[in-house]
Amino acid sequence: MSRRPNAARRFGESGSIPFVGAFHSKSHPSPLLTIGLFVVGALLIVGYLYHGSGGRSGDIGALNRLDGGVSCTQEVQRLIPYLKKAYGDSMRKVLHVGPETCSIVSQLLKEEDTEAWGVEPYELDDADSNCKSLVHKGVVRVADIKFPLPYRPKSFSLVIVSDALDYLSPKYLNKTVPELVRVSSDGLVILSGYPGQQRAKVAELSKFGRPAKLRSSSWWIRFFIQTSLEENEPVIKKFEQATSKKSLSSACQVFHIKPLH
Ligand SMILES: *[C@@H]1O[C@H](CO)[C@@H](O)[C@H](O)[C@H]1NC(C)=O
């Protein structure tokens, strides 16, 4: 399905062999020189791939470190008061989509005048009793977000997605992000990691199926333009005002997308 696992190896082969070959035919370098050139070439390719993870292409394999690290779902918990300031009444009926959604839904349900639902995109293996009860009541659903969401258009005032999109390829993002916008009446909030951040424990890999792909903000902005989604400028201003008063810097990128008309 994905070309990711072999990307680095294929780059190495196709990139270096013709180069070394051309060199050979003109002069006769020592084997040491050839090896040296090969090593330099390999380092350049690794450097290129590493940069690529934050750069232009969504296809080039990211060399993410697999170890502890940032969770944007935890970041949502921290940002809820500021999202309330920015969205006001639009926080009345919230859908959260992402790993560990039970924690967000539980927190939102404690807020006054807020109804909350959750979509857990991966299996819930270690759900506590509170989470099991939310699933039992149908408040939290386990659903693969690569497929259409089981909700009518504008079912929620606000949709918040954290972490989950970082595990999808552009092909699925093309469908999933507009789906998230479809089910919201007032907007979509996307929380996504910064390129180079530590993310996804090794144990989580089997759950997510692939390592997180942390994309740069310029990548996301181009993606929004390509998929005809617009950022919500008035909300961005309010959110920035609210967070800057507390000089709160987010560990995750936060995007505010307008609803469909
Ligand atoms: C996603 O959609 C955009 C705009 O429709 C298109 O240009 C792009 O090729 C699509 N990407 C993939 C991977 O399907």
TrEMBL record:
The keyword Ion transport does not apply. Keywords: Membrane, Transmembrane, Transmembrane helix. InterPro entries: CGR2/3 (IPR044689), SAM-dependent_MTases_sf (IPR029063). One of its GO terms (molecular function) is methyltransferase activity. SUPFAM superfamilies: S-adenosyl-L-methionine-dependent methyltransferases. The chain crosses the membrane at residues 32-50. The keyword Nucleotide-binding does not apply. One of its GO terms (biological process) is pectin metabolic process. PANTHER family: OS01G0144000 PROTEIN, S-ADENOSYL-L-METHIONINE-DEPENDENT METHYLTRANSFERASE-RELATED. This is Methyltransferase type 11 domain-containing protein.
